[in-house]
Every structure is written in C-alpha cells, then in structure tokens.
Amino acid sequence: MFKRSRLFGLLALVAVGLLAGCGSDDSSGGGGGSSNAESEDPAALLKKAFANPVDSGELKMEGKAEIEGSSRVSGPVSFSVEGPFKMRGRTTLPLVDWDIEVNGGGQDLSGGVVATEDNAFVKFRGQTYEVGKQLYQQFLRQQEQQSKKGPQSIKELGIDPANWLEGAKVADGESIGGSSTRKVTGKIDVEQMVDDVVDVLKNPEVREQFEGTGQDAPEISDSDKQEAVEAVKNADIAVNVDDEDIVRKVVFSAKLDPPDGGDNGVTGGTVELSYELPKVGGAVDITAPPDAKPLALLLQQLGLGSSLPGGGLRTQ
Questions:
Q1: Residues spanned by the domain of 94
Q2: Rounded CA gap, 265 and 71, in Å?
Q3: For strand 120-124 and strand 95-104, is the pairing parallel, antiparallel, or unpaired?
Q4: What are 261-277's pLDDT values in tens digits?
Q5: What is the tally of structural domains in the chain?
Q6: Is residue 287 part of a domain?
Q7: In angstroms, rounded to a whole number, what is the distance separating the alpha carbons of residues 123 and 64?
Q8: Residue 288 in domain
Q9: What's the 3-state SS for the chain?
Q10: pLDDT tens per residue, range 227-248
Q11: C-alpha torsion 61→229→75→20, nearest 10
C-alpha cells in the first residue's frame, strides 16, 4: 500500500516545483505590462513572466503546514528563508546570504547559509561554521559536472505552470518593493500538475542526475498518482507580476484530504507556500562572515562525525 508519508513527499515536490517556476528560464521575456490588468490574458502573462530571469535581488520564502491526525507532528510546522542572492549562471550555485528559521514539532531552530565566490558558511544557533575553501570548490566542481548532464529549467523539462490554472483571471495587485503588480489568481488543475511532475521524474536525464547524487529517483505508479490527486482539495494559486513582467510573488495553498489507508494516522491538513522577491536587480554584496569555526565542529555537536571528506578540521 502507498504510504501517506510518501504521498505527502510527492505533494511537497509538486509544490516546490511550482515555486521553482519563477524566473528559472534563460531567455528574457521582459517588456512592460499593460495598464488595464483585467484585459490581459492570464496564460499569456504567466508564460512571459515565468520565462523572465532574475539575476539578483532579495528572496523571501515561507511555508506552513498543519497536518491533522499525525502521530509524529503536533501543531503547525513552518519555515522561512530570507536574504539576498546573485545568480552565477546555469551550472553553478548562486551567491546567497540567507537567514533560515524552522518552527514546529516542539523545535524552534534559527540559522542560515552564506555562499561567497570561494567559500560557504552555515549559521546555527548564533555561531557561524565554515565549510572551507577546498571542500567548497570540490563541491562546486561536482555540481557543475552534474548540472551539465541534464535540463536546468522548467521549460527544458517540458513544464509550463500556466497550463495548471483553471478559471484564471487578472486584476490589479498590491505594490511589492515599490513596484505595482498585476495579480493572476485561479484554481490548480492538480491532475495536470501531478502528471507533469511525475513525467519529469521519468525523464532519463533527471534520473541520471538523481543517480549522480547517490539517490534513486522516486518510482511513482499510476495508483500513486491517483492517490495524490485525490488527496489535494481546493488548491489555489496567486501570482503577482510587475510592470517589467517579472514574477514578484507566488502563493500556493491547498487543503489535503488523503484517501483512507495510510501511515501515522494522518487524516488531512492544509499547506501554504509563498515565494516573494521584495527586491530585484541591483548590486548584491555578499561577504564572508567573521569568526567562523570549522564545520566539522558542528557535525560533532550534532553527532554526525568528527571530520569532513577532503577538509578534515581545517578551515582553509
């Protein structure tokens, strides 16, 4: 029988795939928005906006889930990621300085991650830990090689989030970062969305990328897909697009009502994910934080080992 934990994992993957659609193509589709929002075609507006890349700015991502009947999770679980970023091309990781918070299940954790040109750092409970230049450069080389083996954008994967909308309409939206927006709202065609994501998991190049990280790509049967579709109720989306046709905000929400038969006693719940760019473009200054300790010390504290491959306890 298909486990509900696996079901929720697939649903989470679907939602993340939706948010990842924002500005993830290499081709620019910019070109100024219409002054009459209600007269615009929602699908055409989203196609243009999702194809418009953002090279730098500030990110704010939040998520919240309330799972009913779970024997493992009591109360709401939430996370937030916030801070500046600068893209560095298709095959390497961006520069970032992100604060991260996770709350729920009796735990309140705060930390963050910093990635500079030549090093990376982890912030955890008020202390900063350094990955180390040698290990980080090794990781970047592996990432670059792995990225060259498969598609990088949702367009290359054959996914068009605009096809997931039903009953979409456009209206004037709120100002974001001083920019006016048009707001596209509608219902999600969950079956189409799940089909697209599952098709991606069957893509040979995507499966090769999974294998390159030492993981097996998830195997999703037709019955698994149907169970996922039946589990999602009232899925809604709202997308704010500014006058430069850049996606500035996406909010995805859904009510979950899993079919009978599963694990951990889960009977339902709600999920909400939001992605926002309060600022786009401009210079981004991301520098190495001072007074960092070796990451291996943090791993020791967490019981994950006392050394790192290629880096040991060294900080350089």
A1: 4-279+293-301
A2: 6
A3: unpaired
A4: 455 567 788 889 999 99
A5: 1
A6: no
A7: 22
A8: no
A9: CCCHHHHHHHHHHHHHHHHCCCCCCCCCCCCCCCCCHHHCCHHHHHHHHHCCCCCEEEEEEEEEEEEECCCCCCCCEEEEEEEEEECCCCCCCCEEEEEEEEEECCEEEEEEEEECCCCEEEEECCEEEECCHHHHHHHHHHHHHHHCCCCCCCCCCCCCHHHHEEEEEEEEEEEECCEEEEEEEEEECHHHHHHHHHHHHHCHHHHHHHHHCCCCCCCCCHHHHHHHHHHEEEEEEEEEEECCCCEEEEEEEEEECCCCCCCCCCCEEEEEEEEEEEEECCCCCCCCCCCCEEHHHHHHHCCCCCCCCCCCCCCC
A10: 878 888 889 999 999 999 999 9
A11: -10
Is residue 193 within 8 A of residue 14, CB to CB? The reply is: yes
Q: What is the pTM of this model?
A: 0.80
pLDDT tens digits in sequence order for the chain, 316 residues long: 344 445 455 555 555 555 554 444 444 444 454 446 777 899 899 888 888 889 999 999 999 988 887 766 667 889 999 999 999 887 788 999 999 999 987 788 899 999 999 999 999 988 999 999 999 999 888 878 776 665 556 666 677 777 888 899 999 999 999 999 999 999 988 888 888 888 877 877 777 777 766 677 777 788 878 887 888 888 999 999 999 999 999 999 999 887 764 555 677 888 899 999 999 998 999 999 999 999 989 988 888 765 555 444 443 3
Q: State what percent of residues in the chain have pLDDT above 70.
A: 76
CA dihedral 296, 299, 304, 309 (to 10 degrees): -30
Position 314 in a domain: no
Q: Is residue 262, in this structure, part of any structural domain at all?
A: yes
Strand 95-104 to 77-86 pairing: antiparallel
Q: Note whether 194 and 229 are within 8 A (CB).
A: yes
